[in-house]
Specification:
alpha/beta, 13 strands, elongated
Length: 385
């Protein structure tokens, strides 16, 4: 440790000419040190070149994105819409008419019966030909023309062991085993307002006129549904060789139920088939029912045959249409029954007061099913003992 400490002499400021003064440093005007505090941050030294910020141009990228979007939308449209706009025609050959209608409608196509031909290989009602053929690609809702079998050609010669009958004056061969049978078809109601009439020849009760009903959803008139169904039934029965009498073929006639019954009586019909739609205050009531005249002194002569026909027709209607079976019932208060002198039934083919039945009856293919069921029941009745 030193015995003594030498004190450092403090430097004294230089006075006079040699004194240093900051303001003596030469400066250029408007330099960094001359700037006010709020401009210091934006100072740029003279001669220094800074990089200029160039704005980003997004237009090319947006154009590319828009083009890709449009292209993607077009591809998606082709993928999504193309299959739904076209459909491959199903093969209907060998199917029964109800099956063919269901299959074709399930593909969004509209099948139509355009002809009947005899067939030694196929039973009655089987599809023999179709156009366009199965496998063809067509637009949805396109039509398919169907040709149906009407079974083997009927024998025109005498049964074995019997003599050949004498030729008729016309020289024409018999049209078939049912050519001597007559069916009257009475499509219910009309466009002309109906008037009240007596329920029976004894004039025991006056019943009000019935103008029919409208579909609860579609608004379709009952007289249009019954006429279309009746005309389809006529076509089906005529191809079987049955003689058919129509009470009306238009909606602008004016016929009472008494007159309609007289038409069937004058034609000496084997059966009169009245076609109507059901009417109920309960909108849940739906399905098909068939009525026949109640047994009394007016109907005794044809009561049994009417009941038999009703049972057969009801069974075939349910089989063809696959709807609710409301059974058969007798009625005693209907002029169409009580003024009749021939077997008579009335098929209520669906309830226009029910939304489901209304929708079904507005569909032409369903009315073909109804007509087919009626036809099968009538043919079964005509062939019964």
């Amino acid at each position: 440790m030193p015995l003594f400490r030498v004190k450092k002499k403090e430097e004294e400021p230089i006075e006079g000419e040699n004194a240093f003064h900051a303001e003596d440093v030469p400066r250029e005007g408007n330099g960094f040190f001359d700037l006010p505090p709020d401009e210091v941050a934006s100072f740029k030294a003279p001669g220094v070149v800074g990089a200029r910020r160039k704005p980003l141009d997004l237009k090319p990228a947006l154009k590319v994105f828009a083009a890709l979007f449009v292209l993607g939308a077009m591809v998606a449209g082709v993928i999504v819409l193309w299959p739904s706009a076209r459909e491959r025609v199903p093969d209907l050959l060998g199917r029964t008419l109800p099956e063919a209608l269901d299959v074709a409608r399930g593909r969004g196509l509209t099948p139509t019966v355009t002809g009947w031909e005899y067939s030694e290989k196929h039973s009655d009602g089987v599809v023999l030909a179709q156009s366009p053929g199965g496998g063809k690609l067509v637009r949805k809702k396109s039509g398919i023309a169907i040709t149906l079998s009407k079974g083997p050609r009927p024998e025109t010669g005498p049964p074995p062991g019997q003599a050949e009958p004498a030729p008729s004056g016309s020289g024409e061969a018999s049209a078939g085993p049912l050519s001597n049978r007559t069916i009257t078809i009475d499509p219910g109601h009309q466009a002309v307002p109906a008037y009240g009439e007596w329920s029976d020849p004894g004039m025991t009760r006056r019943v009000p006129g019935d103008n029919g009903i409208k579909g609860v959803i579609t608004g379709v008139e009952e007289y249009l549904v019954t006429l279309d169904t009746g005309l389809k039934l006529r076509d089906l029965l005529e191809k079987d060789g049955v003689r058919v009498v129509m009470t009306r073929e238009t909606s602008t006639i004016d016929l009472t139920n008494v007159i309609r019954a007289e038409i069937a009586n004058n034609a000496e019909s084997d059966l009169c088939v009245r076609i109507h739609c059901g009417n109920s205050s309960d909108p849940l009531t739906m399905g098909i029912e068939t009525m026949y005249p109640a047994r009394d002194r007016l109907t005794e002569a044809f009561y049994e045959k009417s009941k038999t026909a009703a049972l057969m027709i009801q069974a075939e209607l349910i089989k063809s249409c696959g709807t609710d079976d409301l059974g058969v019932l007798d009625r005693h208060d209907m002029p169409g029954f009580n003024w009749s002198k021939v077997p008579v039934v009335e098929a209520e083919i669906g309830f226009l007061t029910n939304p489901r039945d209304d929708g079904l009856l507005s569909d032409e293919q369903y009315r073909w099913k109804v007509a087919w069921g009626l036809r099968n029941g009538v043919i079964k009745y005509l062939n019964s003992p």
